[in-house]
Design brief:
Blueprint lengths: L6 H21 L6 H19 L13 H4 L4 H10 L15 H13 L4 H6 L3
Helix pairs in contact: 4-5
């Protein structure tokens, strides 16, 4: 036998090696150039706001506030933005947004960096 490592030890090693990468993915801030940021802010106000309320406090769709989104995994929210939600009014936006765009929007909404006063005033 070439290796004397048990299967459970291999699993633990694999998890240990992958955990820092996953932690980094959850905390990394997505880079988006300032012009695109303005476009995405406009998108959030007008497209997201049409269902989630113009100040994102809820409407046809749920509130998009840090207190309602911060507990959700980023990947869940990114997938929701890009793919929509089956049997709901939430449409897929993947034809208009890249994965990076959806990740940036998610990070902004979860952290509260998209301020409701910014949304109310408009991004353009």
């Amino acid at each position: 036998m070439l290796f004397k490592t048990s299967f459970p030890e291999i699993i633990v090693l694999g998890i240990t090696l992958l955990a820092p990468q996953n932690a980094m993915a959850e905390t990394a801030i997505t880079e988006v150039n300032p012009a695109r940021q303005n476009e995405l802010m406009y998108f959030v106000k007008h497209d997201c706001g049409s269902c989630h309320g113009m100040t994102l406090k809820g409407g046809l769709g749920p509130a998009l506030l840090p207190e309602t989104l911060s507990a959700q995994p980023k990947e869940y929210l990114v997938t929701t933005i890009l793919e929509g939600r089956k049997n709901t009014a939430m449409p897929p936006w993947k034809s208009m947004l890249s994965r990076n765009d959806a990740l940036w929007i998610t990070e902004q909404l979860q952290s509260g960096r998209i301020d409701q006063t910014q949304i109310a005033k408009g991004a353009r």
